[in-house]
Amino acid sequence: MRRPVVSRDLALTVAAQLAFKLLGFLVLTLLARELGPGEFGFLMFALATCELAALATEFGSSAHLTREVAVSPDRAPLLLGEVLGARLPLLVGYLGLMAVVAAAAFTPRQAAAFLAIAAYAGLKDLSRAYSAVFFGSRRVVLGTVPFGSHLVVLAAGVWLAAANGAGAGGVACAYLAAGVWL
């Protein structure tokens, strides 16, 4: 690979990561400002719990997929199918576990919000497999743009939910919409 291509890809990745972090900070600032301490605490607990639990569906498969696609780009569809074949049952198990946690620990309204956040975390984690194919085939823009655009959808949804007083449930719906966008 030529040096200018690597430099461009690295610059794009660094710039995108900085922009993503700033957008994430904006979302958290909006949430902290518009939600009360109880709703904000619940939402942060749901996000932390679901994001951490969703990691169990990954097990390094995205890094493996990136590496294997970089070595054999012509096998990318087959490799993606293998990874998704392993991850989808794990995702179903993860969502089942989160449903049990939601039913056992929360009121029905909180449980619905928790499950929306769980679905968001699962979809976001699953999207890493698709991004891994693009990163492995050295198409950094195609791997970066979907994640960045989902953050724009998320920020807009959070702003709309907060501006309309929708509370943690409305914000959870914004997260779910952003996950579907991915």
Written description of the protein model:
- By secondary structure, this protein is mainly alpha-helical.
- Helix content is 87%, strand content 0%.
- The protein is built from 7 helices and no strands.
- Helix 2 packs across helix 5 (108-136), helix 3 (61-71) packs antiparallel against helix 4 and helix 5 (108-136) runs antiparallel to helix 6.
- The two termini are 29 Å apart.
What attributes characterize this protein structure?
mainly alpha; 87% helix; 7 helices; 0% strand; 182 residues
Please give a quick description of this structure.
This protein has 182 residues and is mainly α.
How does the SSE layout of this entry go?
Layout: H1 3-34, H2 37-54, H3 61-71, H4 76-105, H5 108-136, H6 140-163, H7 167-181
Helix pairs in contact: 1-6, 2-5, 2-7, 3-4, 3-5, 4-5, 5-6, 5-7, 6-7
